[in-house]
Specification:
This protein has 346 residues and is an alpha/beta fold. It has helices at 37-45, 52-69, 75-87, 94-103, 114-143, 170-179, 196-208, 220-223, 249-259, 290-293, 334-345, and strands spanning 10-13, 16-20, 31-32, 152-155, 185-189, 211-215, 229-232, 236-237, 243-246, 263-266, 294-295, 298-299, 312-315, 322-325, 328-331.
Length: 346
Amino acid sequence: MLPSFVFRPIRYSQGSLTLVDQRVLPGRIRRLRPARARDVAAAIRGLVVRGAPAIGVAAGYGLALEARQLDDRQLRAGLRRAGRMLARARPTAVNLHRAVSCVLEPLADKTLTGDSLRRAVEARAMALDREEVARSLAIAAAGVVLLRDGARVLTICNTGALAAPGVGTALGIVFEAHLRGLQPRVCACETRPLLQGARLTMLELVRAGIRGRLIADSAAAAVVGDCDIVLVGADRIARNGDTANKVGTRMLAVLAREAGVPFYVAAPVSTFDPGCAEGKGIVIEQRDEQEVLSCLGRRSAPPGARAFNPAFDVTPARFISGFVTDRGIISRPFGPGIRRLLAVTG
C-alpha cells in the first residue's frame, strides 16, 4: 500500500497510458495520453516523464501501446524498431535499455503470434511496473536505518515518486523516515537548469508534510556541514561503483567528503550496469544549450552567448559512502558487493 501523498505519474489501464506532464509542475497537473511508442519516446526525451526507473517503465508501456497498433505481419519487426527508438530516447539511464530488452523478450518465443504476443508484451510491461514499485519500497526500508530522529538530508534533483514508481529512491528513504515519525528535514538543491529540485522535490515534500528548505545549487557548500547525510539517486552505476547522476551530484560528493558527511546513492538493481566497468564508459547525455541560456522559458543570457549543458556527471566511487539498493546496503569495498548483486539479478 503506497502512502496517499505520493504521485502516480504513470498509469496504464486497458490499453491506455496516462503520463503526468512534469514540465508544468508544480503550477498545474496536466495528463498526456500517448498513443504510440514514438509518442512515449518524445515524452521521455522532452522530460514529460523522467527519472531512470520511471522512464524504463514508461518505455515498457510504450511497447505495449505499439503492439496494439501493429498488424500481425508488422508486429515483430515493428516492435524491434520501436524498441530501438525508445532505447535511444535518453542514452545515460541504463534502466531504459534494460526495460526495453525485458519487455521484448517474448519476441524470442517463435510460437507466439498475433494477440498472444501482444498480451505477452503487455504482461511484461505491467510486471516491470510492479517490480519497480516493489524495489522502491525495499530501498526505503533498507535506507531508513541511515537516518536518525530529526536527520538533516541534503539532496539534488528529484528522486521521489515522480522519478521512480512507488515512493522513489533517495527521497523514498525520507518518506519512510517521515512515516515512522522520525521527522526528517530536507535541504533541496534547486537543480538548474530545469529546476527539478525546486519544482518537483519541494512539491513532493510539501504534499507529504515534510520540512524542507530550497537552496540555490551554489549554496550547497554553505549548508553541507550542517547536514547529517547526503542522499542522491542514480541513472547508471558502473561495476566499480562510479555513478552517473544529475549534473551537480559530483559537486555534492566532493563537498560531503570535505565536510566529513556521509554520501549515499540510492538506486534499484536495474540501475547497475554489468556491462560498464567504470565511469569512463558511461555516455553522458548532452542537452540543448537553450536550457541553460534560459530559465523557465525566459531568456537569461545575452544574444550570442553559448552554453555547456550535460544532463549528468559521474561521481567516482571513492567519494561514495555506500549504495542503498532494494537488496540492502552495499558498503566498501564496493566491487564484491556489486558483483554479488549483479550475480543474483542475472
